[in-house]
Structure formats: structure tokens, C-alpha cells
Specification:
The chain is an alpha+beta fold and 102 residues long. The protein contains 5 helices and 2 strands; from the N terminus they run ββααααα.
């Protein structure tokens, strides 16, 4: 579990927060997808759509792509991707050595 949740706010047309989604666990599958996405540039074809799909998946598809695109702040969506990647950086770089020490 994460020490702090990964949060994503949704805004209305007056820029007021209307919903906040929180994620406390990043599944291995999601981390693997985020690592693959990190190899692409933001202007690569399909990158933005792939990030959008990943974010929806991270939050258990509790909102649609359209809701994400119309309600979330672009910077916060990209921060979600960065936060997913940071969860992978918290792991032991040499898990086999850690296991053998026990």
C-alpha cells in the first residue's frame, strides 16, 4: 500500500472540485504499463490516449475517458503517471540479494 494516496480531482465549468478520486494500491500490471509509457515522448502518437487509459484503469474505471478528458487538470493527470512510476522506484533494485540475506 502507498503511504499517501495518488489523488485526482475533477472540476466543473467553474473550476470547482466536484469529485476527488484516491488510489491506495498500484497493481503490478499498472506499474509495468507506466514504465512502458515512460519510454515514449509526450508528442508520440497515442501517448496521451494511453496515459488516459492507464489513469482510468488505476482508479478502477470509476470514470470514463470522456469524464477524465473534460474534468481533470492535464498537469494533475501527468502527475498521476509520475506518481505511479515513483512507486516502482521504492523497490529494492536487487530483490534477489534482499531475499538471500534473510
Amino acid at each position: 500500500m502507498l503511504k499517501e494516496p495518488i489523488c485526482l480531482d475533477f472540476y466543473d465549468e467553474n473550476n470547482e472540485i466536484i469529485a476527488q478520486h484516491k488510489c491506495y494500491i498500484v497493481k503490478w500490471k499498472t506499474l509495468k504499463k507506466a514504465i512502458q509509457l515512460s519510454k515514449f515522448k509526450e508528442d508520440d502518437e497515442g501517448f496521451v490516449d494511453a496515459v488516459s487509459n492507464l489513469v482510468c484503469e488505476l482508479y478502477g474505471n470509476k470514470f470514463t475517458l470522456e469524464e477524465l478528458e473534460n474534468g481533470a487538470d492535464k498537469d494533475q493527470v501527468m502527475t498521476v503517471l509520475q506518481e505511479i512510476l515513483k512507486t516502482g522506484n521504492n523497490q529494492n533494485p536487487n530483490p534477489k540479494a534482499a531475499i538471500l540475506k534473510k
